[in-house]
Specification:
alpha+beta; Glutaredoxin; Glutathione S-transferase Yfyf (Class Pi), Chain A, domain 2; 2 domains; 4-stranded mixed β-sheet; 8 helices; binds glutathione
């Protein structure tokens, strides 16, 4: 299978980490997000975003759909064959996409880390304040959930943990306010200690 992606982006890193965890080889083709997308890439993913998986004639974009596909194809317990567990994992993935990522982690990471890396000027403090408020609200939900269990769904690692943890991959660089959330920090340490994240880590240039 071929993965088109940008290794430093959490969405690509998440897919590569899941594949590595499952010992599934992925042939990586880097898409440089700093340049316009080529017509060839737009032909396989009309959104122009990354990542995109190509498996024979099958083309799939959206990272959470991609990790579901890779795990299902390999019969993995990360995507258990149980309707309630699958719905529960999907719930966390939807929450990650609509709220945790889009409203909280991504804007903070962009304002505080990506802008610095790409010399895009200082953080927009209005955007930071809005995202911080969303982060505090959603992190409290995660914290309460993780007082009751070790992983997000049931008592074992699933795709839900990969999806929600990936949004925190740059937590230190973006100074995401995790201090009040001890259970989230302990869970994140557990998930990110899996060798598959280090095995697929991007080569990062020094911050500007
Ligand atoms: N919901 C999508 C998000 C994809 C996405 O926004 N990817 C970013 C990199 S993290 C991208 O390609 N940005 C370039 C662009 O929007 O043109 C997923 O999970 O795959």
């Amino acid at each position: 299978m071929k993965l088109y992606g940008f290794p430093a982006s959490p969405n690509t890193w998440k897919v590569r980490a899941v594949a590595s965890y499952l010992n599934v080889p992925l042939d990586l083709e880097v898409v440089d997000l700093l340049k316009p997308r080529t017509p060839a890439y737009l032909a396989i993913n009309p959104t122009g975003r990354t990542p995109t998986l190509v498996d024979g004639d099958f083309r799939l974009w959206e990272s959470n759909a991609i990790i579901q596909y890779i795990a299902a194809k390999n019969g993995s317990a990360l995507w258990p064959n149980d309707p309630q567990k699958r719905a529960d994992i999907t719930r966390w993935q939807c929450w990650q996409l609509a709220h945790w990522g889009a409203e909280a982690c991504q804007p903070l990471t962009f304002q505080r880390f990506v802008k610095k890396m790409l010399n895009l000027g200082p953080p927009d403090q209005t955007a930071v304040a809005k995202a911080r408020e969303a982060f505090n609200k959603d992190a409290a939900v995660l914290e309460a959930h993780l007082t009751r269990q070790k992983y997000l769904v049931g008592d074992a690692l699933t795709l839900a943990d990969f999806a929600v943890a990936a949004a925190l991959l740059y937590a230190k660089q973006a100074e995401l306010p995790l201090e009040p959330h001890g259970n989230v920090r302990a869970w994140l340490d557990r998930v990110l200690a899996l060798p598959c994240w280090a095995e697929t880590a991007p080569q990062m240039p020094a911050a500007a």
